[in-house]
Every structure is written in structure tokens, then in C-alpha cells.
Amino acid sequence: MPQSDLFGLEMLWKLECANLADKADAMMLFVHWFLVRNGFRNVGVGDDKTLNNAVDQSELLPEGWNGNNKSYALRYTMNNELYILHGTLSNDTMIVNLLQAQSLQVSNAAFNLDKTINSFNDSSLTNMVVSIDDQITRLQTELIKPLCDGGSKSSSTQTLISSSPSPAQVNPVPAAAPRRIEVLRPSGLLLPFGGGGGVGRGDLNPLGGFVGGGGGMLMDPMNMRPGRADPFLPGARIDPMGPFPPRVQRPNPNPDHLPPPGYDDMFM
After folding, report:
1. Is 121 within 8 Å of 21 (Cβ atoms)?
2. Which DSSP helix (H) or strand (E) runs through 151?
3. SS3 call for 267
4. Model's pTM, two decimal places?
5. How many CB atoms lie within 10 A of CB 196?
């Protein structure tokens, strides 16, 4: 015995049984009854996606609903939203699609007519449908639930949630490593004050003016310059800064050498 609530199915069968031509009509009649039992109301035939609120909503099937028993198109409304039911017969299989016109979300279910409809000549649609409880469960889970149980809304919400990564999924930004400052020495440039040893290397040599290569002290150890008398005393160490050209090297004795013994003895 069926356990589902089949209220209205027998009455609908009595109203439409004379208009049914084959198992495909009986299958669509069963689907229509299931939609009406779940709050849908028919607003005509066709696949027009415009909802006219002036059209009467009915629990009955419209006239000419099974004019083409190979392809069906019925329009329904629920909660001021339009739904279009399509039924297409292909190789003894009835493919049923339910389209929500506004969101264009679609659900579908397929039924083998020979395994779903027992005998078309039975006096009751309840007896005609094989395992009617199982067929009702399939219509609920495959046809209505994806659209009317928040299918489109839940999918859009799920999309928004999945697009926002959870805190556990956010990769922490690693701390910036200290930058190493590298001093680049340009190649091929002539460095001032002599030397491939670096800027100022020539000035570290006090006799750079004699050896060549520039640099060194402005005044030599004898404090004398060629071509003029120097006012400074011998032995003075005065190193004014200035990039003057190198001087001519003088012959020995080197004034920086130690004096001979008795150099400062006035009696020698």
C-alpha cells in the first residue's frame, strides 16, 4: 500500500482519463499532480518566459496540454515566480525538465515509461504507476528540491563563501628580509688621485709627487719646491690640501735620512 499522501490524484485521473492517449500522457499527468500538491499552479501551455498576473492560476490542466504527446510544455507559477515544465519523449524514456524562468536554473528527471507506467488501461492512476512512493521521492529530490529548497540561492551563497578564503587559507605574508646594500664600482673609469686601489689611495703616500701617479703632500720633506725659495724651515711638516701636479724628484741625500754622527757638534 502507498504511504505517500495521494490526495487529489484520483480526482485528477477521473477528469483527464478520457483525454489520455498513451503512457507519456499518463506520466505527464502524474507529474502535474505532484507539482500541484507542492503548491504550483498552472498558467497555460507553451514556453513563454513572461508571467502575466492577469492569467488565472489553476490546479487543472489547460485545454490542449497533450496536443503533441512527444513534447510537452506547461507553465506554472509559485510565489510569483514562473516555472516551465518540459517533457520530451525519447526512446521510451520521458525526460522531464523544470525551468525557473527568472534565474534560468533547471532541474531534470528521466523515467523509463515501461518501468514506470504499468498498464495504461488500469482504472486508477495509483495502480498504474509502479512503486508510486519511489517515483514521488524521485520527483521531490530530482525535480523540485534543486529549485525550491534554495537551490539557486544556496549555490550563489556558496559561490560567495568559497570566493572569500577562510583565515586558515590566507597565506601569511613573510617578513621582508633585510636588504643588502652593495656598492658597485664602475669599471673603466679613471679614479682621481691615482690608483686602482680606491679613491684617495694616492694621498696616503707622502712622496706620491716624487714617485709619480699624483697625490702625496703638497710640500716635500725639505719644504722646497723647484724654482723658488721656500720660506719654511727644513724639516717642517706642513701638509696643506690641494690637487697640485706632481713634483720633480730630487737626488740624494734624502733629507729624511738620519744625520751623520756629530752633525750638531759645532766643534767638529
Report:
1. no
2. helix 151-163
3. coil
4. 0.56
5. 6
All residues at 6 or more sequence positions from 135 whose CB lies less than 8 Å from its CB, including other chains? 30, 111, 116, 129
Q: How far is CA 112 from CA 90, 129, 192, in A?
A: 10, 11, 98
Neighbours of 244 (CB within 10 A): 15
- Does pLDDT of 85 surpass 90? yes
Q: DSSP string of 173-209?
A: PPPPPPPPP-PPPPTT---TTS-TT-TTGGGG-TTHH
**Residue 221, φ and ψ in degrees, nearest 5:** -60, -25
Write the single-letter amino acid at 148.
C
Residue 80: alpha-carbon gap to chain centroid = 36
**235's torsion region: left (phi>0), alpha (psi -120 to 50) or beta?**
left
Q: What is the DSSP code (8-state) at residue 218?
A: S
219-241: average pLDDT: 52
16 or 155, greater pLDDT: 16
- Asked whether 135 and 30 are in contact (CB, 8 A), the reply is yes
Q: Give the torsion through C-alpha atoms of 97, 101, 105, 106, to 10 deg.
A: 0
**Domains of the chain and CATH, by start:** 9-49+59-149 (3.40.1000.30)
